[in-house]
Design goal:
Layout (H helix, E strand, L loop, with lengths): L1 E4 L3 H13 L4 E4 L2 H7 L7 E5 L7 H10 L8 E5 L4 H9 L4 E4 L4 H15 L6 E4 L2 E4 L4 E4 L2 E3 L3 H12 L5 E2 H9 L7 H14 L7 E4 L3 E4 L5
Parallel strand pairs: 1-2, 1-3, 3-4, 4-5
Antiparallel strand pairs: 6-7, 7-8, 8-9, 10-12, 11-12
Helix pairs in contact: 1-5, 6-8, 7-8
């Protein structure tokens, strides 16, 4: 269960809807106080917490969450329209697991939710399979048709992102943000170069990574 806390009902509803559409259970809250009250009844797997909230702001709520032994282990992604360096530092220093700057795309949000859950889950499925490609996360190993393939770190992270989100189109800017970090300032040809190299290394399975003209890239299962 993912909880979304935002006093803007439209944004909160969009977040909840996007999470439900990608297979998560999700619930929305308009303020931190009602969310903290609900914690007495049930515990979520992750909280997306807006910084600018009425009465008690997101950073105060975060501190309260992390100061209690009952809720300190719940992962939190902070969301804010500010995007200043101090906001990021304050959130991360107080125990936030990740940070989203508004306006953000719902697929970026879903990808970050999945990434945080992977980091905190000790029993996360360690093998991803798409067609003839296998990615063993705990061993950091990629195999194509049973044969090991040597990838750079960024190539590995790109492949992992695509395999976790089969059918989802990522723009070049989204890939730069997700793989090279939110603060990376680069050019789209950086992504294109890595995709080209990744396709070559995947040999016959390189065709799984498809170009969506004018948008970006996606992975699709293709019968060989």
């Amino acid at each position: 269960m993912i909880w979304c806390v935002d006093d803007d009902k439209t944004i909160c509803d969009i977040e909840v809807y996007a999470l439900k559409q990608t297979g998560f259970e999700a619930k929305g809250f308009s303020d931190g106080i009602s969310m903290l009250e609900q914690l007495k009844v049930e515990k979520p797997d992750l909280i997306i917490l807006d910084v600018m909230l009425p009465e008690k702001d997101g950073l105060e709520v975060l501190k309260e969450l992390k100061s209690s032994s009952e809720t300190s282990k719940i992962p939190v992604i902070m969301a804010t329209a500010k995007g200043t360096e101090m906001d990021k530092v304050s959130g991360l220093d107080n125990g936030a697991d990740d940070y989203l700057v508004k306006p953000f795309g719902v697929m970026e949000m879903v990808s970050r939710v999945k990434a945080v859950l992977r980091r905190v889950s000790s029993d996360f499925d360690s093998v991803l399979n798409v067609g003839k490609i296998s990615l063993i996360t705990k061993e950091h190993v990629v195999k194509v048709d049973g044969e090991k393939v040597s990838l750079t770190l960024k190539e590995y992270e790109l492949l992992k992102l695509f395999m976790e989100n089969v059918g989802i189109v990522f723009s070049r800017n989204q890939l730069l943000s997700l793989i090279w970090s939110t603060d990376y300032v680069g050019e789209s040809r950086t992504v294109d170069m890595h995709i080209k190299n990744l396709r070559q290394k995947l040999s016959q399975c390189g065709k799984y990574i498809q170009t969506v003209i004018g948008v970006g890239y996606k992975m699709e299962r293709i019968d060989d």
